[in-house]
Structure formats: structure tokens, C-alpha cells
Design goal:
- The complex is a heterodimer.
- Chain A is built from 13 helices and twelve strands.
- By secondary structure, chain A is of the alpha/beta class.
- Chain A has two domains: 10-224, 3-Layer(aba) Sandwich (Rossmann fold); 227-325, Orthogonal Bundle (Helicase, Ruva Protein, domain 3).
- A five-stranded parallel beta sheet of chain A has the order 2-5-8-1-9. A two-stranded antiparallel ribbon of chain A has the order 3-4.
- Chain B has three domains: 3-155, no CATH class; 164-319, no CATH class; 365-399, no CATH class.
- Chain B has 13 helices and three strands.
- Chain B has helices at 3-51, 56-78, 85-95, 101-106, 128-146, 164-179, 184-198, 208-244, 251-270, 277-285, 288-293, 296-319, 435-445, and strands at 123-125, 377-379, 396-398.
- Chain B is elongated.
- Classes of the chains: A alpha/beta, B mainly alpha.
- The A-B interface holds A 6-7, 9, 228, 230-233, 274, 277, 279-286, 324-326, 328, 330-337, 339 and B 20-21, 24-25, 27-28, 81, 83, 87, 90-91, 94-97, 99-101, 103-104, 107-111, 120-127, 129-130.
- β12 (334-336) of chain A pairs antiparallel with β1 (123-125) of chain B.
Amino acid sequence: MTPTIHLTESEASSAAENISRLRVALQSVLFGQDELINHVITGLLARGHLLLEGLPGLGKTELVKGLAKALDLQAKRIQFTPDLLPGDITGNPMLQDVDGTRRFVFQPGPIFANLVLADEINRASPKTQSALLEAMQERRVTVMGESHILPAPFFVLATQNPIELEGTYPLPEAQLDRFLFKLDVRTNDAATLEKIVLNREIGEEPEVHAVMNAAQFNSLLDLTRRVFMPQPVANFIARLVKATHPGEPHAAGVKYGASPRAALALAAASKGRALMERRLNASFEDVRAAAPAVLRHRLLLDYGAKLEGMTPDLIVARLLENVPAQDKPLPSSLAAAKI
Amino acid sequence: MSSSNKSHFWQAASSALARRINLGWWLERWTVWLMTSALAGSVVLLLVRWMQPGQLHWVWIALAVVLSLGAIVAWLMERRRFESPDTARVRLEDALGLKTRLSAAAAGVGEWPAEVEKIEWPVHWRWQRPLAVLIFTVAMLLLSTWVPISEGAAFKKRIIEKPSAVKDVEQWVQELRKEEAVEEKSTEEVDKKIADLLKRPTENWYEHGSLEAAGNLKEQTAAELRELAENLADGQRAASALQAMGDSVPQAVKDSLAAGLEQAASNLAAGGMKPNEQLLQQLQNMKASDLKGMSKEQMQKLAEQMKKNSEALSKCLGKCEGFDPSGIPTAGKGEGKEGKNGKDGDGDPGRGGVSRGRGDAEMFFKQNETNLATKKTETVPAELDVERAAPADVLAVTDGKHDVDKNAYQGAKQGGAIQNAGDGGSAVWQNSLMPAEREVLKRFFK
């Protein structure tokens, strides 16, 4: 591993400014979803794929479209249906006349874009879903023994609907683990709805100006990697992920815990948040802020916990409450002060 | 504010926090030691106060040493739990919301945060436990020094009293020596016997054999003293009579008295307890033949010496505890005063004379007058033959309570008596029944 050159104050300031402009642009597309926007930006900075779960009509697609426009990236949308085939996503070889000879020429599918919106991903068959696996992880597609590199940056923003689960294929854990974040898109409050009514028209897309291009965004991603990860924070991430495993004191009800990939995701997300806040280093606060989005789809609860009404979010909240930044115990004559 | 100052400030803060936490760990261990030492110290204090009250300062010194040692041991044992300033810095930056800037700055990434006027420490003391232990410790130690405690009986010097018989004899010897009533050699003999008795281990003084020996010594000494007193009285009586006799008294009487005096002198010289040196010397020099040739003055002198010795003996025997003087003849005579009735004599009746008073002797044959006011009865003991009992024989004193045989036959008794004799026509069971029973009977006979 090559030694990391840490960020400078000026680099961090410049990056934070660009990110701030991106945030403002997204806020003009999606009203009242600041937390969701922050998480989306954090996920992108961490080079992660995002799984958005929410009811229809909450602006998921608009968010992705707005993101593509603001970043001046190529965006494509795939509506997942049960009869969708893997080739419909990755592309197919087509028999074509080339220089007087007939041969198969690869026709790239909709996945060849910077931003791919996989709408209602849980409606496609497992076969089609798994076609996304290599693309998401390796950032390339292999068809007929030939690998095709996906454009950089490459992000998959998948959505799934928590209702109407009849005839759907829930994503397997292995595929869920490929997503950096699982974000809950919550319904808007009345004030936000009022704002939407006053500023939007049906069928009319909001106007978004590009705040940066793909090259600038790629350099932003490089800067994110250079955010310093202090050893105590790395230790905290490790202990937090370890605490999700069954048998740990605060992981009652968990059937399967988070993987090491979750720890990497948490570290990357923490760096992304740190850069958003113009900091040169990740912190415990960044980890705590990113932990629910990173861990909630990676914790598999047992039936007992489900019957008791436990949710992954409750488990994560319990872990964050009980896993301290410093794991060394205090003597009984001293108590941790709440400042 | 320069970067080095900020660095120094936060590093000092981290070190201070580490010291605070480490002090807490040290206290946690040491308070256990303190409490244990206090408990043990209290027990030791109580024991020392019970055994050797004067040695308390050593306990305090030992306690101070133990506590100091405990402080070192606690430090050594808790070292593995001690926090370094780096570890404490993580607590500090997390609690103060510094977004890990201290750790980053320490790693050379970014600037140290600005100093703060007052640091809100991420830990605060919970003094209840250490304070409770301290109060408990002090209370225990103070209590163990204050609580009243008797000196240990096991460690007190045991004083074993001499047997009462020995003590009595010692007192007799002391009195006899003080009054010079007996020969010094005789008292030394008794002393020697007492010393022989006391030579045995003190724990054996009260064994049956020792007590019996002491009793024998007492009885023997008493018997010898009694014998001495009797011989002195006899001798004095004979000497007085010889000196007072006129020429008209038949020679046979004089010879008889002289023989009595000689016998008394011989007994005095040969007895276990001899009279004082002066009299003894005189008696030893005196031969039987000399008695007849003694002048009246010499006889009077002898009689006076015997009387003097006898009086000294009587005086000291009167002071002797546990000595029964009954049966010992007292020397002396009643002295009458001219013209009027003289004062009653102390001993024998007066010798008469033209200028004497009455000088009556006591009108009883015993040494002590019968106490008529007592409820006790005086009887002649069964072992004595009443017919031959002399007037001065010791009478037994018994409880005057009637000796009633309760089992003796008291005549025919009437059996099956009823509670109420009953008047004519009244029901004899009337008062014998319970109210409920009475009700039942009334209903039955209604």
C-alpha cells in the first residue's frame, strides 16, 4: 500500500466548497430531504452504491436525475421487471457487418453509464439481479468472455418499494452487502409538501445546473481517499462492526452480523463526511452518523427479535450507545461525564 | 497562539486526564487494602489494648508501614490498567466534540485545536465509595482505640493467696514476735515450717495434701500456744501461791505447790513453743532444789515474769485471727479498791485483804456468759457424758429450730371431703360447675 499523502487545509476547503455547491443543487431538486441528500453525497464520495428504499413518488428518481445533471454525468435508468434479462442490463453481442465480414459486436447495455438508476430492483429475477454483482463490485462487465470496463465514476442507485412484495425477489444478503448505504426515503412533512406544490409542475423536470464535471468529481473522490483516518477511529469502527456479531453483549437478536466490507464502508463513509465538513480527518462523530446507513441492511435478525419488534436500526442505535470511543474501562471512583 | 503552545496545552490536558484516571485505578486497589488493613488493625489494636496497653504506638507505626506498602503494591498491581496520555486524549477529544482533531494533530495531520479557558473533563469523581471506605477505616480505628476494654485476665499477673491456715499462722507468729511472748527460736521454727510449705509450686498450694499440711501446722501451733499458755498460767499460779503463803501453811502443801511449779517450768522448757528468752533462761537455770530455797522476793519476781509473759501471750493470742482462745486460762486477778466496792477483776477472784473491795468473780463457770436473748440452744454434745460434764466444759451450740418429723403419723384423716358442707337442702355442686354447664343443667331441669 502506497503511503497516503494527507489532505491539506486548502484542498479540504476547496473540496468542501464543491460539495456544498452540489448539496445546494440537490436541495433545489429534492425539498425537505437534507439528511438523505447528505447521505447520498457521502455515499458517492465513498465510491459506494446506494440502495434507496421508499414509497413511490418521494423523489428517488428525481434525485438521481438531479445528481446526474449537477455532476454532468451520464445517467441511465433501468426499470426492473420479472422478465428483465441480464443482457438487457449489461448489453448483448449483436451480429453485424463490419468491413464486409459478419461478426458479433458488443452492444453496451444501460449499465454503461456513470449513474445507473436501478428502479425497483427487487422485481427482477435473481439471475438478472446477480448480473449487477460483477458490475457493482468490479466496475466492469464480461460478456462472451470479453470484459468491458464501465465508465468512471460508476454508481448504482437502486430503489426498492417496501410495499407490494408479491412477486418480488428480495435481494440476497451477498448482493445487499455490495451496497454501501441503504437509505430510507421518508415521506415529506406538510411544509415540504407545500413547497413542492408551489415550485413544481407535473411532467416538468426541475432545472439543475452542473456544478462540476466528471473529472472534477473524480478528483473529489481521490481527495476523499486522502482524508486521514486516526487509529482510535479505526479502532472504534472495528469494535463497532465486531459488536454486531451474534454472541456479542449488545447484539442480542442478531443472526448474522456485518462483514469486514461493512468496516471498509464505514471508514470510507466517515472520510466522505469529514471532507463534507472541511476536515482533514475522520472522527467518531462521522462513524456514528454513517453507521445506521451502512449497517442496517447488513444485519440479519433472527425470528425472535423480529417478533419482538426489533429492527436493524434499533440494534445499531443500541450498539452506538454502548460501544464507547475509548474501550478502556474507568475505575469505579470515576464516571464518564456528559458534556 | 502558537502551534507549540496549543500542542503543549492539549498534551498537558491529556496527561492530567491520564493522571486522574490512573489515580482512580490506584485508589480502587488501595481502598481495598486500606479497608482490610483497617479491619486487621482494629483487631490488633483491641488485642494489644487487652494484652499490653502500653504498646499501642507500635501498632500505629505498623499500620502506617502496611498502608505505605499497600500504596506501592496497589501502584504496581494497577499499572497494567493505567492509561497513557494518548489513550486519555481519545477520551478528551470524544467528550469535548473535537472531532478527533487531537489525534490527527498528534499524528501530524492538521493544526491543534485552539486552547480553551476551562476544560470540561470527560470524567468526574465519584467520591462516595473511597470516602465511605475512608470514613469506615477511621471509624474502625478510632472505635478500636476508644471502646472500653478490660485488661486481659489471661495476661494479668496471677496472685495466689496463701492458704488461710498458713496466713493465720504467719499472723500469729508476727504477733508473738511483736509482743516477744515466745522464744525467737520457736517462731523461727514455725517460720521454717511455713517456708517449707510454701516452697511447693503455687498451683499446688490448694491441693488436698498441702491444705491438710497447712491445717496441721495451724493446729499444731495452736496446740503448742495453748500448752504454753496453760503452763504459764499453772506456773504463775503456783509461784503466786508460794510467794503469798505464810509460814503456817503446812510443808506438804508447799511441796505440792513447788512440785506443780517445777512441773510447769519443766513443761515450759520442753514445750514446742517456749516462753520468751528471759523467762526461759531463768527456768533453765532453776533447779528443783532451788525452789525451796527461793526467797519470797525471788518467787515474786518469777511469778511476775510468768505473769508478764502470760499477759503478753494472752494479748497477742487475742489478736490472732483464727485462734480459738477458749480453754486457755487467763492470768490475772481482781484488784479491789479500798472502802468501796472495787472494780470487777479481769480474771481470778482477788486475794482479799483489809483494803480491798468486793472484787467479785463472774458468776458463771464458762468463759463466756450465756446469751439469753438468742434463739439458739446450748446443749451438752452427745459425745460427752452429761453426768460427768464439768461446769466449764465446752457446750455445743445448735440451731434452736424445732426438729419436727413431718412424716410422723398424725392420726386418722377424713377422706373424700366435699368442698361445701352444705346447708340443708342446698345443692353441693352449685359452685363447682362452669357457667355453661350450669345453664345446661338448668335447661334440663326446667
